[in-house]
Amino acid sequence: MLSRTADYLFWMARYMERAENTARMLGVSYEMSLLPQSQDAAEQGWRGLLSISELTSSFAQRYAAVSARNVMDFMIRDESNPSSILSCVRAARENARAVRGALTTEVWETQNQTWLEFNKLLRAESTLRDPGPVLERVKTRSHLSRGVTVGTMLHDEALHFLRIGTFLERADNTARLLDVKFQALGGGDFFGGQAKEGQEVDFYHWSAILRSVSGFEIYRKVYRNVIVPEKVAELLILRPDMPRSLAACMNDVVANLSLVANEQSAETLRRAGRLRSDLQYARIDEILATGLHAYLTQFLDRVGDLGVGISRDFLVPMAA
Amino acid sequence: MKMRFDEMHSGPEVVREHYRTYARWLAEQPAEVMRSRREEAEVIFRRVGITFAVYGAKDEDGSGTERLIPFDLIPRVIDKQEWRDMEAGLRQRVTALNRFIHDVYHEQAILKAGIVPAEQVLHNSQYRAEMVGVDVPGQVYSHIAGIDIVRAANADGSGTYYVLEDNLRVPSGVSYMLENRKMMMRLFPELFAMHRVAPVAHYPDLLLETLRDVAPPGVNEPAVVVLTPGMYNSAYFEHAFLAQQMGVELVEGQDLFVRDGFVYMRTTQGPRRVDVIYRRVDDDFLDPRAFRPDSTLGCAGLLDVYRAGNIALCNAIGTGIADDKSIYPYVPKMIEYYLGEKPILQNVPTWLCRQADDLKYVLDHLPELVVKEVHGAGGYGMLVGPAATKAEIESFRQALLANPANYVAQPTLSLSTCPTFVDAGIAPRHIDLRPFVLSGKSVQMVPGGLTRVALKEGSLVVNSSQGGGTKDTWVLEV
Questions:
Q1: For residues B20 and B191, what is the distance between their CA atoms, to the nearest angstrom?
Q2: What 8-state DSSP symbol labels residue B330?
């Protein structure tokens, strides 16, 4: 298939996945902000969210105060923010439009319909007053978008590049979510062993994180135990059967990448495989011992590097 | 008295034979049902994304530039025998036009015979010297032709079809023809049970066959692509639609490159050879090395590959020489010259302002004539005498005098009307018709074409850029 087509497909999937993850992240932050806490702590939560998305300075240029309402406005519907949900949905649709011939009619119509709907819904005043249902809707449309893709498209390169986009973006987003939330609690690399009185707060904190990745019930099912940070980290990083974990994402990235391999992609495939096996054979206590933040930072770098490699090998080849 | 011809009615309350079943059905439909169907159509068109881009325009939320072309629910119905005659006429006309283009770039026999003035061809801005002596497969140049046809009222109440214009370069609109039919079948399936409407949905098949037909010699499984200027082009939907329907790649200039005398596209599996390009990019932009150097829409070196016979371009380069408005008046003579036949379809009488006698006549009769620019398109740069103010006529007179060769004039035809839904209810509006004629190893077309309708009362301008809409076009098989 055309490199340019693959490029658009890859980004269409990434933007849609990003919109969903932003909605998830905002949802969990919003939920936590409703817990009894100090003004400072609440603001700290929102700041963390901006910083993990690398948006602190562009937010500061547009808004005076770090408040729930402002962050919601910025992250949901600010068109000057390329990572806002509205911008992502628009970008996903524009990418789809550029290659609508490579999509099934159902996939295209779903993408177009999502844009038409959100272009109205996200701009409505009620969106900021009560973001919950809107964020849910974003997830629903993203589920639909992914489902119609898998359910209607030929299992050829077009689908593989879409899937690579989805899982690479998801790996990135899950890692960021983990990073910001673990830092918010206890700060830095401090881990576990908190004072007893913190335990109740912790429960809500960890369960919110789990819910944001649809992992609460999964956690119970897998561990049949109370919620402890080590296990949360293990579930979201290493469990290959947890669909939003880093390990699961990398398994899917590698599987799809090997299906599209070409003459120049060996090195990118090697790096992807290496990253996957690092996850496969890692242990959570080792990761925590070296420091979660450092580990996730390194992971994000490697995911970024994979994106560059995929671009170079398949999407924007330089050689004429 | 003003002459009228309505496609549905032959007189007050008198419905033409081929419209009777439809008219009876329409009379039974409650107004609110039709209204809600109209809204439904609009929602579907938007969801499906059947839009065209308007440069510099903003939509209601100020964010985009995509517009819907208004779709009218009342079909334009053509009687079977009428279509048969029209089809024969189209076949004949397009065949002669292709012969003409081949002749112009080879022997130039028709110029030597003095039938078409040589200077009008050789000094025409659409004449491409690069094409002289170049042989194209099957000697076909305009593989996809859109012939604009109108029906004009005669004094006795009958109507006559005229060819208004030949579009031999990159005619568009066929996707609307297909989508309009899909929409009608979705909204009113019962109508298709009541009528035997000739299907049109196989157009992409015929198109693919045509494109494969003209692949360079020796290529057995030609790689066909559609070349688009990109998603911001007004006809992008159509380009994407046709590529998808044919199952071929939709490429942009940046996806193509030339190496060792062949054209390749950049794919995820490395370079792949391309054999046939259905290009929706104008000649001028096809190859920055040969034509406009600032073009980013084409592929550098394409012309050389083309001249060497290693790529097929559909349509060929240089077809504009045959659809130019100053060449148009000679088409009936071409038909006689090349085919030895009488033209089946009529031309509209045309005055060439480059000729002194014609110019004098035109200047004396401006208020009753339609004056067009020779290279104009889209309904711009024209004067519709009867609809123009005195001041408009005078300012046009000055433009005409300043550069007479740039204009042709025609009588103002009383275009036929078709009942159409407007805000006030159902009212007659002027229409035209663009059938699409495909020429590969044979000449093929689907019955009917795209009917465009001027939605403004009294307006004769059907172009979508100026408030035109479209209708489904039915050729009845019984």
A1: 12
A2: G
Instruction: Read off the amino acid at residue B435.
Output: P
d(CA B239, CA B170) in angstroms, rounded, equals 11
Q: Is A170 exposed, middle or buried (0-12, 13-18, 19+ CB in 10 A)?
A: buried
Give residue A172's Cα distance to chain centre: 6
Q: What is the DSSP letter of B379?
A: T
* pTM (2 d.p.): 0.87
Q: Which residues of A have a CB under 8 Å from any CB of B? A: 1-6, 94, 97-102, 105, 108-109, 112-113, 116, 119-120, 123, 157, 161, 260, 262-263, 314-315, 317, 320
Q: Cβ contacts (< 8 Å) between A5 and chain B: which residues?
A: 249-250
**Contact (CB, 8 A) for B339 and B92:** yes
Nearest CA in chain B to A1: B267
Longest dimension (CA), chain A: 65
In one-letter notation, the amino acid at residue B107 is E
Q: How far apart are CA B251 and CA B101, in angstroms?
A: 27
* Cα–Cα dist B385/B408, whole Å: 13
Cβ within 8 Å of residue A125, ≥6 positions away: none
pLDDT tens-digit series, residues A31-77: 878 777 777 777 888 888 898 888 999 999 999 999 989 999 999 99
- Residue B307 to residues B50, B130, B254, B333, Cα–Cα distance (Å): 36, 8, 21, 30
Taking CA atoms, B317 is separated from B75, B132, B283, in Å, by: 36, 11, 6
**Alpha helices (H) in B403-476, listed in sequence order:** none
Helix/strand/coil for B478: coil
Taking the mean position of all CA atoms in its chain, how far away is CA B348?
A: 17
State pLDDT tens for residues B132-167: 999 999 999 999 999 999 999 988 889 999 999 999
Nearest to A2 among B46, B231, B251 (CB): B251
Contact criterion met (CB below 8 Å) for A180 and A296: no
Question: Residue A195 above 50 pLDDT?
Answer: no
Measure the CA angle with vertex B243, ends B238 and B246; round to 5°.
120
B246-269: buried (b, 16+ CB within 10 Å) or exposed (e) per residue? bebbbbbbebbbbeeebbbbbbbe
- Chain B nearest CA to A267, separation (Å): 16
Helix (H, G, I), strand (E, B) or coil at B252: coil
From CA B104, how far away is CA B27, in angstroms rounded?
Answer: 54
The pair of three-digit structure tokens given for residue B381, joined into one six-digit string: 């740069």
The model's pLDDT over B287-326, given as tens digits with 9 standing for 90+, comes to 999 999 999 999 999 999 999 999 999 999 999 999 988 8
DSSP B215: S
What is the CA angle A277-A283-A289, rounded to 5? 125
Contacts of A38 (CB under 8 A, 6+ apart): none
Report the C-alpha gap between A121 and A134 in whole angstroms: 8
Residue B131, judged by CB atoms within 10 A of its CB (0-12, 13-18, 19+), counts as buried
Residue A108 has its nearest CB partner, among B49, B230, B268, at B49
Q: What angle do CA B344, B94, B242 make, to 5 degrees?
A: 130
What does the pLDDT look like over A69-83, one tens digit per residue? Answer: 999 999 999 999 999
Joined together, the tokens standing for residue B462 give: 């059907």
Structure tokens at B395: 């300012």
Report whether B423 contacts B72 (CB < 8 A).
Answer: no
Which residue in B66, B63, B68 sits closest to B41, CA to CA?
Answer: B68
Condensed to tens digits (0 to 9), the pLDDT of residues B94-125 reads 999 999 999 999 999 999 999 999 988 999 98
A222 phi and psi angles, rounded to 5 deg: -75, -45
